[in-house]
Amino acid sequence: MLKRQPKTLIPLIQELERYVAVKDKRNAKVSTSDVAWQIDHSLKVINLVCDTLLKSNPEDYKRNFNTWRLLLFTIGYFPRGKVKAPKFVRPPEIISIEDLNVQIQTAYQNIEKLKSADKHAHFKHFVFGVLHKKRTIRFLQLHTNHHLKIIRDILNSN
Predict the structure, then answer these.
(1) DSSP class of residue 59?
(2) Alpha-carbon distance 88 to 43, whole Å?
(3) How many domains does the chain have?
(4) Residue 4: per-residue pLDDT
(5) What is the CATH number of the domain that holds 33?
């Protein structure tokens, strides 16, 4: 059984936090962006998704079927280079350590708040449709792991 509890996101945020020290590393064979971009984007997604979910009205949740969600959530993998990040979760040109640290602390706070969210709290993803709390946690696990793998590949190929 997959663990879809908010606490499962904490080790992922901790790993992102460990990579802040090497934020300027890059490898064009792996990605056009550096480690900082991957960290910043991952944190922006976590924080924006949590914020949206926490502000949602559980009574408005409507169950929906989505083939892509079923496939990718089941195999537990997002392929690289298939989807471009929406503008509102793209990092700025200059990413400071201070900004990353603020986003990390916000992510920890948001994970704590997720624990008390209603099971029908939700957010709408542009590919996967409307995701309730447990599916949102699964999405955040998969998305963050996707970017952590890119970071590891950037660092391991140098």
Answers:
(1) G
(2) 12
(3) 1
(4) 86
(5) 1.20.120
Q: Long-range pairs for 102-110 at CB < 8 Å and ≥24 separation? A: 103/40, 103/43, 103/44, 103/47, 104/13, 104/16, 104/17, 104/20, 104/43, 106/43, 106/47, 107/9, 107/13, 107/43, 107/46, 107/47, 107/50, 108/10, 108/13, 110/46, 110/47, 110/50, 110/51, 110/54
Type of residue found at 80: R
Residue 124 has phi, psi (to 5 degrees) of -105, 120
Give the domain range for residue 57: 6-14+29-156
Q: What is the pTM of this model?
A: 0.93
Pull the structure tokens for residue 145.
Answer: 């792991």
The whole-angstrom separation of Cα 104 and Cα 18 is 11
Tokens found for residue 45? 């997604």
pLDDT score recorded for residue 1:
42
Asked whether the beta carbons of 29 and 95 are under 8 A apart, the reply is: no
Note whether residue 22 is domain-resident.
no
Residue 22, both tokens? 């090497």
pLDDT in tens, 99-145: 999 999 999 999 999 999 999 999 999 999 999 999 999 999 999 99
